[in-house]
Design goal:
Structural class: alpha/beta
Low-confidence stretches: none
CATH superfamily: Vaccinia Virus protein VP39
Order of helices and strands: HHEEHEHEHEHHHE
Strand order of the largest sheet: 2-1-3-4-6-5
Strand content: 15-25%
Radius of gyration: 18 Å
Mean pLDDT: 95
Number of helices: 8
Helix content: 25-40%
């Protein structure tokens, strides 16, 4: 599915109840392609990111999540044979795992040689237990833990705008739906102005990171 990203897209989805982090996350994921047998790990029943991934309509997707399978990702083996999955997804999952090393090792195990891991972690977001919320990862931490888990060709890229819009993201769901697009326009104006004065502040205040890696 092809999406036109821009101001109207952002305003529409803010009105519909998405956070700015979710909107920008989906925009980033539209740059990624899934294929073959796909394991969506911890994404819940109907994650909206499948509306954005390239190739999703032709992929064979199996969703596993503790909310409907009872699996504990911190200690249970993933229910896939070794080297049986082409694409593994870990979207907004790792921050909820205290034993994240075990989950990453399991994800590495199920991927075919050359198989691809695609994931997202938040950075500047509030506490959101599901059922726990343990970590916020930096770019450096993601590179190290993915490499330590055996992955190669590791890439980590930040997404977001500047610190003023990062602050907007923390309050947006507290606003009435009709006000969210209007308030966003004010925040976006001052965020753009601030970034002109302090351009490095965007790098220091990401809303999250997209990471990809190969087995």
């Amino acid at each position: 599915m092809t999406h036109q990203f821009g101001l109207l897209h952002t305003l529409k989805h803010l009105y519909r109840g998405q956070t700015l982090m979710r909107i920008l996350m989906n925009q980033e994921l539209s740059r990624e392609r899934v294929h073959g047998k796909v394991a969506d790990i911890g994404g819940g029943h109907e994650p909206d990111y499948f509306d954005y991934f390239a190739g999703a309509d032709d992929a064979e997707v199996q969703k596993i999540d503790g909310s409907f399978t009872g699996i504990d990702f911190e200690k249970d083996l993933l229910p896939f044979a070794d080297a049986s999955i082409d694409t593994a997804l870990l979207c907004n999952v790792l921050e909820h795992m205290y034993n994240y090393r075990f989950l990453l090792e399991q994800t590495h195990r199920i991927l075919v040689p050359g198989g691809r891991l695609i994931g997202i972690v938040p950075f500047w977001v509030g506490y959101h237990p599901d059922p726990h919320d343990y970590f916020r990862y930096t770019h450096e931490a993601l590179l190290k833990i993915l490499t330590d888990a055996g992955f190669n060709t590791v890439s980590v890229r930040p997404f977001g705008r500047g610190p003023i819009l990062a602050n907007f993201n923390t309050i947006v769901l507290s606003l009435p739906c009709a006000l969210r697009p209007v308030v966003y326009l004010w925040y976006a104006f001052f965020d753009k102005l601030f970034l002109r004065l302090r351009p490095r502040s965007g790098v220091r205040n990401p809303l999250g990171f997209v990471f990809t890696a190969n087995r």
